[in-house]
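PROTEIN FOLDING TASK:
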Amino acid sequence: GGNLQGEIRLDSSPRCITVSKNGKIYIGMKDHVQVYDGNKKRLASWQHLNGDAVLTSIAVFKNDIFVADAGNRIVLRYDTNGKLLNRIGGKNKERNIPGFVIPSPYFDLAIAGDGLLRVVNPGRHRIEAYTFDGDLEFWWGVYSPNIEGFCGCCNPVNFAILEDGSFVTAEKGLVRVKVYDVDGNFAGVVAGPEQLIEPCEAKICQIPANCQSGGFDLAVDNQQRILVLDTIRNVIRIFTKTRQNSG
């Protein structure tokens, strides 16, 4: 097991975290971002958002910091000094952006290898691609209880990106972790409900109140293993790609 190297004490509960390449730690609290250096010293506390804010995901790309606010159904783009540059994904007919539908506080984002921001639109059962200036370029995903699709009120809840550009997705309710290729085509199952939860716990939830658990988080390590944070059992499950024999 690992040894604790140190800890940062916070005055309230953090909700998301990321680390930049230069070692700065960006922590999303409920309604604002705090920045720390590698020595655990607080460098900044950015401006608080309104009372509806619920920050759920944060990502850094060069000098841009992107924050998902599930409460206000918007993505915020900041510079490294905490200046708000623009908002992304708000409903806008002129720009053909339908807006985010977020029935429960699961709202994930990441920067893909093509330089576009990927954001889950869980109520529309898809992952959307935006430019940093907020243009919606394309999306993929379909509502379906079949293995290729996303079902329930609001899925996927979280995702991560593999080195080859593939996407790993996690769903709640009918809990399953799957892989889609760089274009969003279904590529395979990492784990299904039978591996992740008790059989009686698997269900398709049409309203968020029926699915308060099973919002598993995902990460990919430098060995391209898939790490699944099991929020029901409070464990991390590690999956590796199985080798397929040729011939």
